[in-house]
Amino acid sequence: MTAAGTTLVIGANGTTGSRTTARLVAAGHRVRAAGRRAAPVPGAEAVRFDWYDPATFGEAIAGTDRVYLVPPPGDSDPAAVMLPFLRQARDTGVHRAVLLSSSAVPEGGPAVGAVHRALPGLFDAWAVLRPSWFMQNFTGTHPHAHSIRDDGVILTATGTGRVGFVDADDIAAVAVHALTDDRAPRTDLVLTGPEALSHDDVATIVTEVTGRPVAHRHLPAGQLRDRLAATMPRDFAALLADLDLAIAGGAEDRTTDTVRRLTGRPPRSFRAVAERELTRSG
């Protein structure tokens, strides 16, 4: 590991940002925890940061030498706000950047794919994390988790397509490696769990773990898009519905050895995460 200076974690109260912050702090690294409300984070310096308010950029960057980047949620063109920030960060001393992207979004693809494409031209030390869909989508605050708790149902347009769902704790472990290892990965890293599961499989496991019946209900992509558009911009809802169709076509039916190779331990299974988080939450 490098003798890191200070790491700016953007989205430090989010699913992967909070876990990355906690791991960095536990390992003795200095962390500036950035969020829209500058909420206190144990062991870290809280700082306000808003992708849509460039006036917050300077204070957040000051004194940092690396950054963990969580894109603005629900934005179909995050490059418009992220690239000006990244140029400013580079010009003020940040030399390593680790970007959270998605296994469904290649370099140069839609949304954060444009930031992925630009990153190697901005920093010599960099990595792009491309995790599969989060296991925490079924246990936390994601619409799937609310639907499971409220209605006992998972609504998708994925059909029987399978996904290598990944634990957010495993994503954070890889993020810390990419931020602090002596040599930055300088590549994109596709992260999955140990097995590919359909949403029917997920519903079965959640039912077995919680003792409450959960079913997977398939929706046409257009109907799913319309439901999502009630809570987010319509163009982003359309993107998510298209990603479900890609899953139905087999685009996410894969597993990788990246978590084991970079952390030295196997990725956690969905059943293990469900037992850890759903039995705890009741």
TrEMBL record:
<protein>
    <submittedName>
        <fullName>NAD(P)H-binding protein</fullName>
    </submittedName>
</protein>
<dbReference type="InterPro" id="IPR016040">
    <property type="entry name" value="NAD(P)-bd_dom"/>
</dbReference>
<feature type="domain" description="NAD(P)-binding">
    <location>
        <begin position="11"/>
        <end position="114"/>
    </location>
</feature>
<dbReference type="InterPro" id="IPR051604">
    <property type="entry name" value="Ergot_Alk_Oxidoreductase"/>
</dbReference>
<dbReference type="InterPro" id="IPR036291">
    <property type="entry name" value="NAD(P)-bd_dom_sf"/>
</dbReference>
<feature type="domain" description="NmrA-like">
    <location>
        <begin position="128"/>
        <end position="236"/>
    </location>
</feature>
<dbReference type="InterPro" id="IPR008030">
    <property type="entry name" value="NmrA-like"/>
</dbReference>
<dbReference type="Pfam" id="PF13460">
    <property type="entry name" value="NAD_binding_10"/>
</dbReference>
<dbReference type="Pfam" id="PF05368">
    <property type="entry name" value="NmrA"/>
</dbReference>
